[in-house]
Protein backbone atom coordinates (compact mmCIF):
# COMPACT_ATOMS: atom_id res chain seq x y z
CA UNK A 1 0.00 0.00 0.00
CA UNK A 2 1.49 3.29 -1.12
CA UNK A 3 1.01 6.50 0.81
CA UNK A 4 0.37 9.66 -1.20
CA UNK A 5 0.22 13.31 -0.31
CA UNK A 6 -3.04 15.29 -0.34
CA UNK A 7 -2.82 16.40 -3.97
CA UNK A 8 -3.06 12.89 -5.38
CA UNK A 9 -6.45 11.87 -3.89
CA UNK A 10 -7.72 15.36 -4.70
CA UNK A 11 -6.71 14.95 -8.35
CA UNK A 12 -8.09 11.41 -8.60
CA UNK A 13 -11.46 12.27 -7.09
CA UNK A 14 -11.93 15.76 -8.52
CA UNK A 15 -12.27 17.45 -5.13
CA UNK A 16 -10.11 20.24 -3.81
CA UNK A 17 -7.44 19.76 -1.18
CA UNK A 18 -9.44 22.17 0.92
CA UNK A 19 -12.45 19.83 0.74
CA UNK A 20 -10.25 16.92 1.85
CA UNK A 21 -9.10 18.95 4.86
CA UNK A 22 -12.74 19.81 5.58
CA UNK A 23 -13.72 16.12 5.47
CA UNK A 24 -10.83 15.40 7.84
CA UNK A 25 -12.02 18.11 10.22
CA UNK A 26 -15.53 16.57 10.14
CA UNK A 27 -14.02 13.21 11.11
CA UNK A 28 -14.74 11.53 7.78
CA UNK A 29 -11.09 11.12 6.72
CA UNK A 30 -8.15 10.25 8.92
CA UNK A 31 -4.92 10.61 6.95
CA UNK A 32 -1.65 9.67 8.56
CA UNK A 33 1.05 12.27 9.07
CA UNK A 34 4.53 12.07 7.64
CA UNK A 35 7.57 12.99 9.74
CA UNK A 36 7.46 16.47 8.23
CA UNK A 37 3.76 16.89 9.23
CA UNK A 38 2.31 16.49 5.75
CA UNK A 39 -0.91 14.52 5.40
CA UNK A 40 -0.49 11.19 3.68
CA UNK A 41 -3.34 9.09 2.36
CA UNK A 42 -3.43 5.42 1.46
CA UNK A 43 -4.64 4.45 -1.98
CA UNK A 44 -8.10 3.53 -0.63
CA UNK A 45 -8.74 7.13 0.43
CA UNK A 46 -10.11 7.79 -3.07
CA UNK A 47 -12.92 5.27 -2.50
CA UNK A 48 -13.87 6.95 0.78
CA UNK A 49 -13.79 10.43 -0.81
CA UNK A 50 -15.97 9.29 -3.75
CA UNK A 51 -18.48 7.81 -1.27
CA UNK A 52 -18.52 11.03 0.74
CA UNK A 53 -19.18 12.99 -2.48
CA UNK A 54 -21.89 10.50 -3.49
CA UNK A 55 -23.73 11.02 -0.20
CA UNK A 56 -23.25 14.81 -0.26
CA UNK A 57 -24.50 14.95 -3.85
CA UNK A 58 -27.57 12.97 -2.72
CA UNK A 59 -28.41 15.87 -0.41
CA UNK A 60 -26.95 14.69 2.88
CA UNK A 61 -24.83 16.94 5.08
CA UNK A 62 -21.38 16.10 6.44
CA UNK A 63 -23.05 15.40 9.78
CA UNK A 64 -25.39 12.96 8.04
CA UNK A 65 -22.48 11.30 6.22
CA UNK A 66 -20.88 10.55 9.60
CA UNK A 67 -23.64 7.94 10.19
CA UNK A 68 -22.24 6.04 7.19
CA UNK A 69 -18.62 5.89 8.48
CA UNK A 70 -18.60 2.09 8.82
CA UNK A 71 -19.42 1.63 5.14
CA UNK A 72 -17.55 4.56 3.51
CA UNK A 73 -14.68 2.29 2.43
CA UNK A 74 -16.98 -0.02 0.45
CA UNK A 75 -19.45 0.53 -2.37
CA UNK A 76 -22.02 2.74 -0.66
CA UNK A 77 -24.21 3.02 -3.77
CA UNK A 78 -24.50 -0.75 -4.21
CA UNK A 79 -24.69 -1.79 -0.55
CA UNK A 80 -28.08 -2.55 0.96
CA UNK A 81 -29.26 0.39 3.07
CA UNK A 82 -29.22 0.11 6.83
CA UNK A 83 -32.14 1.13 9.01
CA UNK A 84 -30.07 4.00 10.44
CA UNK A 85 -29.02 5.13 6.96
CA UNK A 86 -32.62 5.14 5.77
CA UNK A 87 -33.72 7.13 8.83
CA UNK A 88 -31.00 9.73 8.18
CA UNK A 89 -31.99 10.00 4.51
CA UNK A 90 -35.71 10.28 5.33
CA UNK A 91 -35.03 12.97 7.95
CA UNK A 92 -32.91 14.92 5.45
CA UNK A 93 -35.62 14.60 2.80
CA UNK A 94 -38.25 15.88 5.24
CA UNK A 95 -36.02 18.86 6.09
CA UNK A 96 -35.50 19.61 2.39
CA UNK A 97 -39.23 19.41 1.67
CA UNK A 98 -39.95 21.78 4.57
CA UNK A 99 -37.41 24.29 3.21
CA UNK A 100 -38.83 23.96 -0.29
CA UNK A 101 -42.36 24.54 1.04
CA UNK A 102 -41.19 27.62 2.96
CA UNK A 103 -39.36 29.03 -0.08
CA UNK A 104 -42.40 28.28 -2.28
CA UNK A 105 -44.62 30.22 0.15
CA UNK A 106 -42.20 33.17 0.03
CA UNK A 107 -42.13 33.02 -3.78
CA UNK A 108 -45.93 32.92 -3.93
CA UNK A 109 -46.21 35.95 -1.62
CA UNK A 110 -43.73 37.87 -3.76
CA UNK A 111 -45.58 36.88 -6.94
CA UNK A 112 -48.89 38.08 -5.41
CA UNK A 113 -47.30 41.36 -4.30
CA UNK A 114 -45.91 41.92 -7.81
CA UNK A 115 -49.30 41.19 -9.38
CA UNK A 116 -50.92 43.67 -7.01
CA UNK A 117 -48.25 46.28 -7.74
CA UNK A 118 -48.58 45.69 -11.49
CA UNK A 119 -52.36 46.08 -11.32
CA UNK A 120 -51.92 49.31 -9.34
CA UNK A 121 -49.24 50.47 -11.78
CA UNK A 122 -51.51 49.78 -14.79
CA UNK A 123 -54.38 51.68 -13.13
CA UNK A 124 -52.05 54.60 -12.33
CA UNK A 125 -50.58 54.55 -15.84
CA UNK A 126 -54.09 54.62 -17.36
CA UNK A 127 -55.11 57.52 -15.12
CA UNK A 128 -51.83 59.33 -15.89
CA UNK A 129 -52.35 58.84 -19.63
CA UNK A 130 -55.85 60.30 -19.39
CA UNK A 131 -54.60 63.31 -17.43
CA UNK A 132 -51.66 63.73 -19.83
CA UNK A 133 -53.95 63.62 -22.87
CA UNK A 134 -56.24 66.26 -21.35
CA UNK A 135 -53.26 68.46 -20.37
CA UNK A 136 -51.66 68.05 -23.82
CA UNK A 137 -54.85 69.07 -25.57
CA UNK A 138 -55.13 72.16 -23.34
CA UNK A 139 -51.44 73.07 -23.81
CA UNK A 140 -51.69 72.58 -27.57
CA UNK A 141 -54.57 75.05 -27.71
CA UNK A 142 -52.59 77.53 -25.62
CA UNK A 143 -49.49 77.12 -27.80
CA UNK A 144 -51.50 77.72 -30.97
CA UNK A 145 -52.92 80.89 -29.43
CA UNK A 146 -49.43 82.09 -28.39
CA UNK A 147 -47.95 81.25 -31.78
CA UNK A 148 -50.25 83.72 -33.40
CA UNK A 149 -48.67 86.38 -31.17
CA UNK A 150 -45.06 85.18 -31.35
CA UNK A 151 -43.01 82.22 -32.49
CA UNK A 152 -40.66 80.31 -30.17
CA UNK A 153 -37.25 79.21 -31.45
CA UNK A 154 -35.07 76.68 -29.59
CA UNK A 155 -31.39 76.32 -30.28
CA UNK A 156 -29.23 73.65 -28.65
CA UNK A 157 -25.72 74.80 -27.82
CA UNK A 158 -23.22 72.69 -25.88
CA UNK A 159 -25.88 70.74 -23.99
CA UNK A 160 -27.91 73.90 -23.15
CA UNK A 161 -31.15 74.95 -24.75
CA UNK A 162 -31.41 78.59 -25.65
CA UNK A 163 -34.92 79.89 -26.29
CA UNK A 164 -35.77 83.14 -27.96
CA UNK A 165 -39.27 84.43 -28.45
CA UNK A 166 -39.83 86.10 -31.79
CA UNK A 167 -42.73 88.24 -32.85
CA UNK A 168 -44.32 87.48 -36.20
CA UNK A 169 -42.34 89.18 -38.92
CA UNK A 170 -39.14 89.36 -36.79
CA UNK A 171 -35.98 88.17 -38.51
CA UNK A 172 -33.38 85.55 -37.79
CA UNK A 173 -32.35 86.14 -34.19
CA UNK A 174 -29.48 87.76 -32.31
CA UNK A 175 -26.15 88.99 -33.57
CA UNK A 176 -24.84 85.50 -34.38
CA UNK A 177 -28.11 84.41 -36.02
CA UNK A 178 -28.71 81.70 -33.35
CA UNK A 179 -31.12 83.50 -31.06
CA UNK A 180 -30.55 85.03 -27.65
Automatic annotation (TrEMBL):
Extract the ranges annotated as region (Disordered).
Answer: 116-180
Q: Which SMART domains match?
A: HTH_MERR (SM00422)
Ordered alphabetically, the record's keywords are: DNA-binding, Transcription, Transcription regulation
Against SUPFAM superfamilies, the record matches this protein to:
Putative DNA-binding domain (SSF46955)
One GO term in the molecular function aspect is: DNA binding
Which N-terminal residues, if any, form the signal peptide? Answer: none
What Pfam families would the database entry show?
MerR_1 (PF13411)
Q: Which PROSITE patterns match?
A: HTH_MERR_2 (PS50937)
The annotated regions of Basic and acidic residues compositional bias extend over 118-159
**Alphabetized InterPro entries for the sequence:** DNA-bd_dom_put_sf (IPR009061), MerR-type_HTH_dom (IPR000551), MerR_fam (IPR047057)
Look up the domain of life of the source: Bacteria
Identify the residues that the record assigns to the HTH merR-type domain, covering every copy: 1-71
CDD domains this protein is in?
HTH_MerR-like_sg3
**What protein name is recorded for this chain?**
HTH merR-type domain-containing protein
Q: Which source organism?
A: Streptomyces cacaoi
